[in-house]
């Protein structure tokens, strides 16, 4: 197919019987119809006349279709006066509708039909069925229905309701077949059968390099699944036929609690181009019982029943790392010219090492730390709880002058996450929660009750009531915003810890590991490597050094936007604080240097040891409620955590 160089975001595609191809897309920030004639010449089709749109708003084309008789069907979404549909609405109230214009070969409108997109009514799909009849699939308060357009009487035929099918708002790509309805939920392709009124899974599209969000056409006939999709960003569309046959690729399985869009895209990309392997995702949390799914995944890992590749983002694998359950990725990196350990951000790799071994990787990371006014902190980096209290007292402040411990993330949980290595000896499987440092954490969590304000943090900082913040830095813009909040008097001191900088690194995204007991470890590494090298999607900081440097340089560039209103520089980050709207733009070199320093001093891994944190939180509640004293609570935590560590070492 010829390229349409200026057309992007192709939304639909169809062809007539003369070989002309039609579609919709974006040209210079407006939706247009386009055509490629049977000699390969591209053009934009302008001048569509749309009847009864004098009062319409937000008119957006959604699709174009051509039947065997040469009729055009152009599908638009628009806002029209709600009084056109509802007797109880005023004319100045607008309602969204889907309107389908039927046009002849000269693009003159013959008539149009429309479906309200409100009050439970919605047009899900417009298709030309197997007999070339224009048909809609829609829903209303009574359920899903199919309705064919009566070309002779210029209206819809009666509705045919479909029984025992539930098409949710997340359903994509709905198409009719001779025997039923094809549709996608996530990357899974389903078929609803008219005869038995049942829905069955056909296959996972991402396993074959296809993402539902890219599909322009989907059909099935004689057990052949046909797909036309937009794979690349340069307006190329591809035709794919999936035919049952012998698969010669190595099938790799990837276990994950919940499937993310970013990981699904990487899997689809890998499967599209890999000549030797294919990755299939196994989601553990299909019944929305997260705790049960997490427990099952962990059990499968320990007993060797897990997949070739494992997302260990919420797995406390540190307690069983020495059982040779996960592969040390350094063993592959030392012989891989495309991806070796020297290519990684050193502080990130070191934070995730266990005794010099690296068992998991992710293409992006973020930073957790504590920061605030340098007039209070005095350029300190790394601080204990006792030193933090004294520093605040010397400035005439209490613990509640610290902002950022959120209501849904307990102070105790956060402090123990940073201090876990102080209490647990992972190598020997032992712990000690009976010491003075843990008592200091319990005291801190009991005394802290705020840092929150209805007036806005900027006002509180200006008044001096807030002098420090805790939280996450995942971009240069995050740093710029905090610098602006603290009026350029910003220093990072780190969370209070027994030793170290108190600044920690956390992977951002799926944290992948290779199952050491799997039969396809080499092939599994090839996918993990592909994910590491290609999985960064502008969220957080890249783990690969060269990509990190590129992101740092790009942050210094201005984003210039040209529109009808003129040319202006777009912001790189925003923060709405009370009545104050904060914007930050291109970064200065000082901003870049400050973030680099922060990443370089990070010497800890911010990781939720879920089981241990749950034990601590459960037992600490009796101390916070005044039911038990601190020493009794610490002993209970000590005994329960030690039992957990011992069980996982067996």
Give a description of the structure.
Strands 26, 27, 30, 31, 32, 34 and 39 form a seven-stranded mixed beta sheet that branches. Strands 9, 10, 11, 12 and 13 form a five-stranded antiparallel beta sheet that branches. The longest helix has 20 residues, at 630-649. The radius of gyration is 29 Å and the shape is globular. α7 (411-423) packs antiparallel against α8. With 650 residues, it is an alpha+beta fold. The relative contact order is 0.09. Helix content is 25%, strand content 33%. It folds into four domains: 1-161, no CATH class; 163-245, Thrombin, subunit H, CATH 2.40.10; 263-363 and 509-543, D-Maltodextrin-Binding Protein, domain 2 (3-Layer(aba) Sandwich), CATH 3.40.190; 365-505 and 549-649, D-Maltodextrin-Binding Protein, domain 2 (3-Layer(aba) Sandwich), CATH 3.40.190.
Give the distance, in angstroms, between the N- and C-terminal Cα atoms: 61 Å
Stretches where pLDDT falls below 50 for ≥5 residues?
none
Strand content: 25-35%
Helix fraction by DSSP (H/I, runs of at least 4): 25-40%
List the helices and strands and how they pair.
Layout: E1 8-15, E2 21-27, E3 30-36, E4 42-45, E5 57-66, E6 72-81, E7 94-103, E8 109-116, E9 122-128, E10 134-140, E11 143-150, E12 155-156, E13 160-161, E14 171-176, E15 180-185, E16 188-193, E17 198-204, E18 215-221, E19 224-230, E20 237-242, E21 250-256, H1 261-273, E22 277-283, H2 290-302, E23 309-311, H3 330-333, H4 346-352, E24 353-354, E25 357-358, E26 364-373, H5 374-377, H6 385-394, E27 402-403, H7 411-423, E28 424-425, E29 430-431, H8 436-447, H9 457-463, E30 468-473, H10 476-485, E31 490-492, E32 504-507, E33 512-514, H11 521-534, E34 541-542, H12 545-554, E35 559-563, E36 566-570, E37 573-577, E38 580-584, H13 589-601, E39 604-605, H14 610-624, H15 630-649
Parallel strand pairs: 21-22, 21-23, 27-30, 32-39
Antiparallel strand pairs: 1-2, 2-3, 3-4, 5-6, 6-7, 7-8, 9-10, 10-11, 11-12, 11-13, 14-15, 15-16, 16-17, 18-19, 19-20, 23-33, 24-25, 26-30, 26-31, 26-32, 26-34, 28-29, 35-36, 37-38
Helix pairs in contact: 1-11, 7-8, 14-15
């Amino acid at each position: 197919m010829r390229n349409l160089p200026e057309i992007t975001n192709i939304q639909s595609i169809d062809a007539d019987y003369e070989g002309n191809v039609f579609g919709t897309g974006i040209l210079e920030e407006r939706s247009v119809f386009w055509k490629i004639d049977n000699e390969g010449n591209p053009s934009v089709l302008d001048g569509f006349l749309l009847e009864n749109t004098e009062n319409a708003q937000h008119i957006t084309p959604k699709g174009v279709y051509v039947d065997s008789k040469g009729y055009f069907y152009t599908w638009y979404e628009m806002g029209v006066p709600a009084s056109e549909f509802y007797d109880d609405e005023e004319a100045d109230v607008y309602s969204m509708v889907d309107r389908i214009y039927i046009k002849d070969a000269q693009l003159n409108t013959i008539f149009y039909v429309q479906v309200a997109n409100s009050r439970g009514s919605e047009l899900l799909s417009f298709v030309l069925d197997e007999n070339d009849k224009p048909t809609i699939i829609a829903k209303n308060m009574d359920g899903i229905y199919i309705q064919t357009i009566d070309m002779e009487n210029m209206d819809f035929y009666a509705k045919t309701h479909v029984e025992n099918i539930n098409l949710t708002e997340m359903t994509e790509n709905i198409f009719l077949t001779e025997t039923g309805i094809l549709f996608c939920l996530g990357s899974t392709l389903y078929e609803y059968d008219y005869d038995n009124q049942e829905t069955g899974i056909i296959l996972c599209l991402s396993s074959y390099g296809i993402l539902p969000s890219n599909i322009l056409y989907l059909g099935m006939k004689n057990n052949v699944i046909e797909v036309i999709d937009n794979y690349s960003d340069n307006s190329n569309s591809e035709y794919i036929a999936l035919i049952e046959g012998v698969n010669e690729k190595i099938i790799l399985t990837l276990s994950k609690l919940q499937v993310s869009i970013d990981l699904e895209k990487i899997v689809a990309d890998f499967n599209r181009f890999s000549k030797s392997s294919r990755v299939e995702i196994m989601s553990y949390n299909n019944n929305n019982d997260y705790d049960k799914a997490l427990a099952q995944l962990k059990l499968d890992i320990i007993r060797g029943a897990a997949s070739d590749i494992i997302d260990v983002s919420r797995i406390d694998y540190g307690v069983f790392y020495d059982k040779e359950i996960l592969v040390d990725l350094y063993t592959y990196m030392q012989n891989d010219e495309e991806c070796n350990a020297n290519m990684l951000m050193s502080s990130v790799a070191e934070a995730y090492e266990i005794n010099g071994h690296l068992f998991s990787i992710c293409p992006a990371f973020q930073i957790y730390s504590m920061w605030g006014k340098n007039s209070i902190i005095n350029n300190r980096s790394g601080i204990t709880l006792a030193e933090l209290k004294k520093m605040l007292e010397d400035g005439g402040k209490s613990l509640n002058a610290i902002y950022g411990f959120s209501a849904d993330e307990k102070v105790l949980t956060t402090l123990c996450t940073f201090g876990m290595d102080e209490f647990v000896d992972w190598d020997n499987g032992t712990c000690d929660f009976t010491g003075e440092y843990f008592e200091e954490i319990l005291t801190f969590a009991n005394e802290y009750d705020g840092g929150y304000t209805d007036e806005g943090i900027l006002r509180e900082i200006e008044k001096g009531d807030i002098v420090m913040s805790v939280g996450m830095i995942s971009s240069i813009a995050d740093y710029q915003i905090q610098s602006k909040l603290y009026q350029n008097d910003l220093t990072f001191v780190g969370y209070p810890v027994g030793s170290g900088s108190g600044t920690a690194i956390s992977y951002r995204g799926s944290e992948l590991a290779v199952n050491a007991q799997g039969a396809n470890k080499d092939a599994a590494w090839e996918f993990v490597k592909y994910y590491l090298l290609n999985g960064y999607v502008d969220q957080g900081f890249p783990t690969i050094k060269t990509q990190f440097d590129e992101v740092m340089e790009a942050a210094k560039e201005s984003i210039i936007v040209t529109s009808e209103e003129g040319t202006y520089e777009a912001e790189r980050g925003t923060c709405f604080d009370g009545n104050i709207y904060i914007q930050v733009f291109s970064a200065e070199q000082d901003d870049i240097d400050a973030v680099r320093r922060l990443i370089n001093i990070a010497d800890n891994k911010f990781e939720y040891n879920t089981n241990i944190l749950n034990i601590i939180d459960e037992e600490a509640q009796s101390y916070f409620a005044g039911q038990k004293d601190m020493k009794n609570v610490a002993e209970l935590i000590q005994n329960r955590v030690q039992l957990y560590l011992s069980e996982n070492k067996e």
